[in-house]
Specification:
This protein is of the alpha+beta class and 257 residues long. The protein has helices at residues 2-68, 75-106, 116-130, 150-167, 225-235, and strands spanning 112-115, 137-140, 145-148, 175-183, 186-193, 240-244, 250-254. It has five helices and seven strands; from the N terminus they run H-H-E-H-E-E-H-E-E-H-E-E. A hairpin with a 5-residue loop joins strand 6 (240-244) and strand 7 (250-254).
Length: 257
């Protein structure tokens, strides 16, 4: 009897020691991963920042050449210079988006009560003002609030709403909605549109940087926006996902802890 009890206690002790060692290993690996991520983000920020100077030179000199030597250039040469400038402008936007993505990861968060609906309405007004030719039906449920960093949440909403605005541009009667549902004890906020949608088979690529599910010539963009949104939501301890059908719109859901 005593020997059996001794063996059980010894087994329990060994299992406890193994669990402690596993926890220690996981903690060490997490620390190494966090350090590697910080180093990668710092590198990305540094490289993106340093690329601005040569890019400005390419854009500036090509612009001057087009302006000063236009009479000496043929139509094809002028078109080539315009293509150079267009590519430089696109690269500048990519660099700016990368810098913003890095800043979001490095910024200090301030938790407060945020009226998400008020921010949606402000972004909606800005989009309507910038594109008065567009007639979009908005449906915004008022006074939907959550705790979080007001600046980061505004950036997330701005990216999601700008996407909805962009992907409804070919709809005869575009609609964009902001609301929430309560499931499993959590608020699930969502932004829904009736635009281009996408094939759910490729939903796994949706939030990756530079991942695009649509032709850039049809729907311009850098492919950084949704990666930025996901990073913001994850920093708030939440989740984000999407449901869609091709040519029938998309709904982006997100939670905030």
């Amino acid at each position: 009897m005593f020997a059996e009890l001794f063996r059980k206690n010894l087994k329990i002790k060994r299992q406890s020691e193994e669990i402690l060692q596993l926890n220690k290993d996981l903690t060490n690996r997490a620390a190494l991963l966090e350090a590697a991520n910080r180093e990668l983000e710092a590198f990305s920020y540094s490289v993106s920042h340093d690329l601005r100077t040569p890019l400005r030179a390419i854009d500036g000199f090509s612009r001057e050449l087009l302006a000063n030597a236009k009479a000496l250039l043929g139509g094809r040469e002028q078109d080539d210079l315009k293509r150079i400038r267009t590519a430089a402008e696109r690269m500048a936007q990519l660099i700016e988006d990368l810098l913003n993505l890095s800043r979001i990861s490095r910024s200090t968060m301030k938790q407060e009560e945020v009226d998400l609906s008020a921010h949606v309405e402000k972004i909606m007004e800005d989009l309507n003002h910038a594109h008065p030719e567009r007639k979009v039906a908005w449906n915004v449920t008022p006074h939907l609030t959550a705790r979080g960093d007001v600046q980061l949440l505004h950036i997330a909403l701005e990216n999601l709403l700008s996407n909805a605005w962009k992907f409804t541009q070919q709809c005869p009667h575009p609609k964009i909605e902001f609301d929430r549902v309560h499931r499993e004890g959590k608020d699930h906020f969502f932004i829904r549109d009736n635009g281009a949608g996408f094939n759910m088979d490729y939903a796994g690529k949706l939030f990756g940087a530079f991942q695009r599910l649509h032709d850039v010539r049809q729907f311009p963009g850098t492919g950084i926006g949704l990666a930025t949104v996901q990073r913001i939501i994850h920093r708030h301890g939440g989740l984000i996902w999407a449901e869609a059908q091709e040519n029938q719109g998309a709904t982006f859901y997100f939670t905030l802890s």
